[in-house]
């Protein structure tokens, strides 16, 4: 349910700029469609579905479609890791090898959970732990990581976004230290999704969500994943597999459910009567842990587009807007402590604590990352400057 924007210090006319900005890109086939929520003080001032669910047949996109949220999954895994840290199961300073002893040798000996949460582990950028392997089963991915993946830099010496390894290790640590002996899927469901009322969200594509699911459509050469699932055929099988257990990329969700997650963060760790994190922890996650560092992965992407590489702006578990004016998905005008997470070429949420504005957008069509940055930068700037 949406409210009158002016009652919450936002302009209807300014918010109305979002739809034509999206439609202009859809008309150019930069992406096929998207659903967006903008909220102020926790009240939804804009909720629209724009464009198409099926581009070829021009089937309109409807609200509460189910999307593969890709790396936005990392935020949910990160929150579960912080929840485990609050419970004393391990600490930010705990070495990963203390929980996963087979993850040892070389620089790996010094990798802590702080390094994993801030993408400063020195582990390489990789989308798979071993060439040609399936990535749908956490046990097998962890075994391959421990066998094949070694740090290429001293932990803490550089920031490099880790597409797979860091959050796979985090998910395994959460599972191994769980006092109830549950699977990672059960922990995600029982400790986060159910308490927040995220009924249309699942790790793996739950059967009842499949009719509303929008299959990933890659608007460039191919998906970075190859033969990911043994149970579902095709390049994108892992995103359609109900049993896939991928703590780094495997969640399917809706805009409304991700808004519930952002509300928990905006409210300092509590929503729907459920306390997930302490407000002390949430406040700590809004600090830049990578000053003076460039994100190695996204720096290369920037250079390829002729941009100056931006600062990494990584916190404990999230991406930050930061202070420098640069190409940024969270816009150029949101406050420096704005924090959130994006997913490969298609998804973004952020919370601006200064202006008390929240933003969620999930889209149909996985864009080239540079074009995705420009799209979300524009939409984020329109959203935040709707504050009056």
Write the layout of secondary structure elements.
Elements: H1 12-15, H2 18-27, E1 33-40, E2 43-54, E3 59-60, E4 66-68, H3 73-86, H4 96-99, H5 113-117, H6 138-148, H7 165-176, H8 184-193, E5 202-203, E6 213-214, E7 251-253, H9 255-266, E8 270-271, E9 274-275, H10 279-284, H11 296-304, E10 319-320, E11 339-343, E12 347-352, E13 357-364, H12 369-384
Helix pairs in contact: 2-12, 3-7, 6-7
Describe the structure.
With 388 residues, the chain is α+β, with helices and mostly antiparallel strands. It is built from twelve helices and 13 strands. The chain has helices at residues 12-15, 18-27, 73-86, 96-99, 113-117, 138-148, 165-176, 184-193, 255-266, 279-284, 296-304, 369-384; strands at 33-40, 43-54, 59-60, 66-68, 202-203, 213-214, 251-253, 270-271, 274-275, 319-320, 339-343, 347-352, 357-364. The strands form three sheets. The chain has a seven-stranded antiparallel β-sheet with strand order 3-2-1-13-12-11-10, with helices on both faces. The protein has a four-stranded mixed β-sheet with strand order 5-7-4-6. Helix 2 packs antiparallel against helix 12 (369-384), helix 3 packs parallel to helix 7 and helix 6 packs across helix 7 (165-176). The longest helix is centred in the last third of the chain and has 16 residues, at 369-384. The two termini are 21 Å apart.
């Amino acid at each position: 349910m949406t409210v009158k924007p002016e009652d919450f210090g936002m302009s209807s006319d300014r918010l109305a700029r979002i739809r034509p900005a999206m439609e202009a890109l859809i008309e150019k086939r930069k992406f096929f469609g998207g659903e967006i929520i903008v909220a102020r003080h926790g009240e939804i001032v804009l909720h629209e579905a724009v464009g198409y669910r099926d581009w070829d047949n021009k089937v309109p996109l409807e609200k509460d479609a189910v999307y593969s949220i890709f790396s936005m999954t990392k935020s949910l895994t990160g929150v579960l890791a912080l929840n485990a840290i609050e419970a004393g199961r391990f600490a930010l300073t705990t070495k990963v090898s203390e929980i996963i002893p087979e993850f040892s040798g070389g620089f790996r000996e010094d990798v802590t959970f702080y390094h994993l949460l801030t993408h400063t582990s020195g582990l390489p950028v990789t989308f798979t732990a071993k060439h040609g392997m399936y990535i749908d089963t956490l046990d097998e991915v962890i075994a391959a990581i421990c066998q094949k993946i070694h740090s290429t830099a001293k932990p803490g010496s550089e920031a490099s976004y880790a597409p797979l390894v860091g959050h796979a290790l985090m998910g395994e640590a959460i599972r191994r230290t769980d006092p109830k002996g549950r699977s990672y899927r059960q922990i995600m469901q029982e400790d986060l999704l159910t308490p927040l009322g995220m009924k249309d969200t699942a790790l793996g594509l739950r059967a009842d969500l499949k009719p509303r699911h929008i299959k990933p459509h890659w608007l460039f050469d191919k998906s970075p994943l190859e033969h990911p699932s043994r149970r579902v055929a095709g390049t994108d099988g892992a995103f359609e597999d109900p049993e896939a257990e991928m703590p780094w990329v495997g969640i399917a969700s809706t805009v409304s459910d991700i808004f519930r997650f952002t509300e928990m963060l905006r409210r300092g760790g509590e929503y729907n009567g459920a306390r997930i994190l302490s407000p002390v922890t949430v406040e700590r996650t809004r600090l830049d842990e990578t000053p003076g560092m460039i994100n190695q992965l996204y720096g290369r992407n920037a250079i390829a587009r002729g941009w100056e590489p931006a600062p990494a702006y990584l916190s404990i578990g999230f991406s930050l807007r930061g202070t420098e004016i640069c190409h940024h998905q969270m816009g150029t005008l949101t406050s420096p402590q704005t924090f959130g997470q994006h997913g490969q070429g298609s998804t973004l949420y952020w919370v601006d604590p200064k202006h008390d504005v929240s933003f969620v957008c999930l889209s149909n069509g996985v864009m080239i990352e540079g074009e995705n940055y420009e799209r979300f930068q524009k939409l984020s700037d329109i959203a935040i400057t709707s504050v009056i």
